[in-house]
User: What shape does this take?
Amino acid sequence: MPVTRRSLLAAGGIAFGGALGALFAGSPGSARAAKRGYGPLLPDPRGLLDLPAGFSYRVLSRAGDPLRSGEGTVPANCDGMAAFGAGGGRVRLVRNHENRVTAALRVPAVHGLTYDPQALGGCTALELGPDGRVTAERVALAGTAVNCAGGRTPWNTWLSCEETEDRAGTSGYTRDHGYVFEVDPADPHRSGAVPLTAMGRFAHEAVAVDPYRGVVYETEDAFVRPFGLFYRFLPERPLGGLGSLRAGGRLEALRVPGVADLSVVDEPGAEFPAQWVPVPDPSAAGTPIRHQDFGRGGITHAQKLEGCYWGGGAGGGIHFVSSFARRGEGAEADHHGQVWFYDPLRGRLRLEVRFGPASDVALPGDSPDNICLAPDGGLMVCEDGGGEQYVFGVTVSGEVYPMARNADDIGRPGAAEFGEFAGVTFSPDGRTMYVNAYAPGTTFAVTGPWQH
Assistant: This one.
């Protein structure tokens, strides 16, 4: 069945249509031949980032360079990121570093900002002046592990997510991991390094906060069975500002009656009643949450849950992404990406888009990951797949176009071998796109004739 055009993000009236499905099916006439957007990508003489005519980039930060704070070097594995206005045309960027114990460039341990000295991940914060140049760069959170994605709060802080379940004593760690941490981009010492334990201990990927009711939604990125869950956290102090999530709350997991694995749903527009089941042990003291007994009716799993974000006003809802599912890895069906929408007012879950099946996907164009709103009301989508890696744009009418490409496998002399794109986000005024190349860790600022 062809993908129908349905509203995905109420803000801006975005609709995903067959064009986006074609992109991730790798069909002829997909992203590379798209006629809309900003035109074809031009080879970058520096071998870093290919962009359309009229666009240019600035390298803001690269792994291994000195931090301007003098705290050490810029850490590796740049991942999730958000941009915050700082007044007077200034911008603050908070950037995750998905460092495991094998990382070559750790987040430096800074007093008052370090949770576990043996863990190498965390966040760094950059401040940019009105001219877009970096004026400050420092550690914002240290001693955490595998900081993948996260999400911003309505009170302008960043929630950084650990994508791990490692316990103290594992990999040399001195404390348990698998938590969410709040980071204040204006003054990281105000937030410190305090795990939000009530939000659960599991392989977190991303979070999104309902700005009207304060409920926090969380995705779990699990590769092997039993796969991850989709959660909601009901805070004791909803929308209470910095530190309020430490007051605790109730963690629940999504159950779709009769659907044990979301991968089996293949018809866009299919809707289901959503139930929320209390998590027996959010701390996962003895058993990982996805292994726990949720009682009669079980629980609903999904492989590789990734991006999670709020769309629309008071009548909006939560969109979340399943990057792929593979029968060979234990899923009940193959796909190469799903986008789901949860309507909290109606208590309904709807499949918006399905890409695939995975067995039919031709590269490039696989595994959608981070997504953000673009200035024209469309989307920017980071690719996390094989071969050349892209940032793709999607217009409000559903046209897909390439916005940026790394220099991996292009064959140009001296081209950098970048990994996936991650952390795409825009400045508050919509004039600059910030995006990370995961490895070697590089943060770019892209400017040009953005359509508003």
Summary: The longest helix spans residues 18-25. The longest strand covers residues 134-144. Residues 221 and 304 are 5 Å apart (CA to CA). DSSP finds two helices and 29 strands in the chain.
